[in-house]
Specification:
disordered C terminus, single chain, elongated
Amino acid sequence: MWIGVLYIIGTVAGVLSVVSAGSPLLSADDYLTEIADNENQMVLGALFVLIMGVSLALIPAIAYPVLKQHNEILAVGYVIFRGALETLTYVVTVLIWLVLVPISQEYVKAADGSSYEALGDMLIYVSKNAATMTALIFPIGALMLYAIFYQSKLTPRWVSMWGIIAVSLYIPAALLDMFDVVTQEDSTFTLMMMPMFLQEMVMAVWLIVKGFNRSSAEPAKVPNAEMSPAR
């Protein structure tokens, strides 16, 4: 149940971060002026990113005791990719967004703000690349999770198969973004990402309502062997 709840919290927080700061402020032509005029909105966006990162990092920690019973190697990989590496990209994003606030304030006060603008452009570039790294790291971890689900039947196989198919679209979209073939604002990028978004929300609701398949989630009970006396 908690895994499903954390999936929803993380997704909602991610959407709110884009709505509050990502789209209206960071995408503006004069983004430094926009950030300076909407400082609290920018800080709120960074807070939403942090909430998203913490929520999604908790999922592998909670799921690991169950997942390791079925495939310990993939379970550890899932913790590394989604619990550590993906969280790191979110932390980098949060720090950059918060640093942009004082830079924007100095920019609007300076007679010549070109140096602040150059610094801001560099931070925006790093932030976009961090988002691209997230888009590459996340599906690798997700694929490990769905492989365990498919193998163990912890969830119905149509849920895990949907996830595997969604990953097959998600990774190419991230690579196209990395090489500037498409941008994250393009409709093609959005359409390739959408199956994963829908799958995670359906899976989250399923986990909240149904939970794991109990027979698969519980470790098998092995009877104690009785030693026969030697004759």
